[in-house]
Design a protein that fits this description.
By secondary structure, the chain is an alpha/beta fold. Helices cover 18% and strands 33% of the residues.
């Protein structure tokens, strides 16, 4: 069996794409990626979702990006081993699924251990679809084996036994109960019907496992914990705390009132204003994150209205956020 390893690779990581790879295309352009670099997608890549020509068109587009993709299994996609065109090979020490026609689009096998620049990384995919009933009712794609089977769970635990239950990083789609952002289910009518057996199983793993960081997606948000990361549009380098890119989904809205720091005569003061324009994909001078044009005041000089262009999202807080503290 062919084995592929490149010790000079960079490993980047992001959350669900659901077939929309604009954030990654933008990232490749400004970070000068090559096929030796790897973008890890934490499930729901949307690559084997439609199961027709549309998937093939997406794969053809991804083939042109200067990257190798490693996709963790999500809940809105078919498992590669159910698709006849997929084969397996050893990649960075662990098995992956791939197609000859699309050799840079890889899918992690649940329970496989990968070596990424000297770090031990395990992949554990799958989750329950909270919108299962809706999908079935409307005839939208739903995959009965979306959650890990008993056999997969047994294999994952056996692999962890071999590692004495110590790894550097975990890559999963959903997460252990301890990290679950429960507010994400508050607006679901039948939240109590959500099958959380996968999260409960992952919770038992987390209690036994020694790890540096547990990365997961599924919940369409970006949240940093002490020893875990929920990722959506953020892109990070594996093992690094700061994000490299956070574009495409503005947190704030036009006409929203916000606070932000302002440099005034060499001093940092508080600014207050109203958002007038959103730069969803940054600006020519700043491509890391969403930015905003704000009209407002410096709190120490409330009589003079000013324009504050291209204020980065990471330094802004809304009034609601301040009240919640």
């Amino acid at each position: 069996m062919k084995q592929e390893t490149n010790n000079s690779s960079r490993f980047f990581i992001t959350g669900d794409c659901h077939g929309d790879f604009e954030k990654i295309e933008f990232f490749c352009r400004y970070h000068e990626t090559t096929p030796d670099d790897c973008m890890i997608i934490l499930g729901d890549a949307g690559i084997n979702f439609c199961m027709d020509y549309r998937d093939e068109e997406l794969k053809n587009a991804l083939d042109k990006m200067p990257l190798t993709f490693l996709c963790v299994h999500g809940n809105h996609e078919e498992r590669p081993y159910n698709i006849s065109s997929y084969r397996t090979k050893v990649w960075h020490g662990g098995l992956v699924y791939y197609e000859d026609a699309h050799s840079t689009i890889l899918f992690a096998k649940d329970g496989e251990m990968y070596e990424m620049n000297g770090k031990k990384v395990i992949a554990i995919g799958g989750a329950y679809s909270g919108d299962k009933a809706f999908r079935i009712m409307l005839g939208l794609p739903w995959f009965p084996d979306e959650q890990p089977s008993k056999e997969i769970k047994k294999y994952v635990e056996a692999q962890l036994d071999k590692q004495q239950w110590t790894v550097d990083y975990v890559l999963s789609h959903t997460c252990p109960m301890v990290y679950e952002p429960r507010e994400k289910y508050q607006n679901l009518v039948d939240a109590k019907t959500i099958d959380k057996s996968t999260e409960q199983w992952l919770d038992q793993i987390a209690k036994r496992l020694t790890y540096k960081c547990w990365y997961f997606g599924h919940y369409h948000d970006n949240v940093a914990y002490d020893d875990a990361e929920l990722l959506y549009e953020e892109i990070k380098e594996l093992g690094e705390k700061d994000f490299l890119q956070k574009l495409g989904r503005p947190k704030y809205r036009v006409k929203e009132c916000v606070f932000f720091p302002v440099k005034n005569d060499g001093r940092e003061e508080d600014g207050y204003g109203v958002i007038e324009q959103i730069h969803e994909y940054g600006t020519e001078n700043q491509r890391k994150e969403v930015s905003y044009d704000i009209k407002g005041i410096i709190c120490g000089n409330p009589d003079q209205k000013m324009d504050f262009p291209q204020v980065k999202e990471s330094v802004i807080e809304s009034i609601n956020e301040l009240m919640e503290k």
